[in-house]
Amino acid sequence: MLAQYGVLDLWTYLAGVVFIILLPGPNSLFVLATGAGRGVRAGYQAAAGVFVGDSILMTLTAAGAASVLRLLPVLFIALKAAGALYLAYLGIRLLLSAWRPAQTATRTVTTTAGSPFRKALLLSLLNPKAILFLLSFFVQFVDPAYPHPALPFLILAVILQCCSALYLSALIFGGARLAAAVRRRPMLARAGSGLVGLLFLWFAGRMAFDA
Fold first, then answer.
1. Count of C-beta atoms within a 10 Å radius of residue 182
2. Among candidates 139, 130, 134, which has minimal Cα distance to 7?
3. Is 142 helix (H, G, I), strand (E, B) or coil?
4. Distance separating alpha carbons of residues 204 and 73, to the nearest angstrom
5. Residue-wise over 142-168: b if at least 16 C-beta within 10 A, else e?
6. Disulfide: which of 58, 110, 114, 175 matches 32 by Cβ 3.0-4.6 Å?
């Protein structure tokens, strides 16, 4: 299936995509927090930011941006540092929100600083490792003999984005229901904000110090 378009081992690729999407990361956590803090509409705005950002990264991957990042390690380090700083900023804002009075406990950083779309887009783009990962993952399922390599890259990207859209939708509706459940429990909401903030700081540290 799809081998005539240069795509190899489709079912293996689908299995890999499922595992990749289910791994927790800053993008999915941000969408979940936005859905919980501002509702379904804002959650989908955040999901759209992730979708656009990932699409840009996939396009850059197919265009050879991974090779550029390898050849210019200073650029890679600069982008990684910017991504770590932005994650740390979001984590600190979430931790501060956890210390606010009870009447504002259900509000997170997603409700106070910028649009969910723009913030999710930045989260997605400020991760140069994603380009390197996408290249190393996609290339395993692209037939090197296929005369138009952009087409199998496009097919693989569309499959990944469709699976991601389904997963983010589940997070959005799950976050909205979770918010409704904890709205009567301010301390639980504050603890949730603090936990997500700590996770964002952990992602920032891992991005900054991992080789």
1. 18
2. 139
3. strand
4. 19
5. beeebeebebbbbbbbebbbebbbebb
6. 175
pTM score of the predicted model? 0.70
> What would the pLDDT profile of 87-132 be if each residue is shown by its tens digit?
787 778 777 766 665 444 444 444 445 688 998 998 888 876 677 6
DSSP state of 109: G
The CA distance from 64 to 83, in Å, is 21
Rounded CA separation 144/161 (Å): 23
3-state secondary structure (DSSP) of residue 130: helix
Whole-angstrom distance, CA of residue 108 vs CA of residue 40? 15
Calpha distance 28→32 (Å, rounded): 6
